[in-house]
Amino acid sequence: MRRALFIILLALAVSAEGKPPTTCGGTDDYAKALCAYQRRSFAEAEVGFRRIVEKNEMDPQNIRAVYFLARTEMKRGRFDEAAPLFVRIYAMDPAFYASWNCDFLLGECRRAVGKE
């Protein structure tokens, strides 16, 4: 009996931890776009991220929006559109570019369009 209770408690703990993180539920434009990205609704995510990026404001949210717009373009198979976004990230913040592994992603874009 004690062992069965332990197994049930362990299963509950694992299932609670096994849920993927989510930003869904946020009300700002970035949270809505990121939620769409997480739901794999890439057309909706693209519109949301592009709206933020086109404002061209200098804040941390903007650079993340550029990053996720580039990732969204990659998910949609638009590697030729994603590549310049990674270059833009480098121009905006080389440290962000390095820490978010943009060099690898840019290489993946170039490989996908045959520009290795």
CATH architecture: Alpha Horseshoe
The protein's oligomeric status is: single chain
Largest sheet: none
**CATH top level label:** Mainly Alpha
Q: Over all CA atoms, what is the radius of gyration? A: 19 Å
Query: Which structural category do the helix and sheet elements fall into?
Result: mainly alpha
Tell me the CATH topology. Serine Threonine Protein Phosphatase 5, Tetratricopeptide repeat
Describe the protein.
- This protein has a single domain (23-112), classed as Alpha Horseshoe (Serine Threonine Protein Phosphatase 5, Tetratricopeptide repeat).
- Helix content is 75%, strand content 0%.
- It has 7 helices and no strands.
- The chain is globular.
- It has helices spanning 2-17, 29-38, 42-55, 60-75, 79-92, 94-99, 102-112.
Please name the defining characteristics of this protein.
116 residues, mainly alpha, Serine Threonine Protein Phosphatase 5, Tetratricopeptide repeat
In short, what is this structure?
This protein has a single domain (23-112), classed as Serine Threonine Protein Phosphatase 5, Tetratricopeptide repeat (Alpha Horseshoe), CATH 1.25.40. The chain is 75% helix and 0% strand.
Write the layout of secondary structure elements.
Layout: H1 2-17, H2 29-38, H3 42-55, H4 60-75, H5 79-92, H6 94-99, H7 102-112
Helix pairs in contact: 2-3, 3-4, 4-5, 5-7
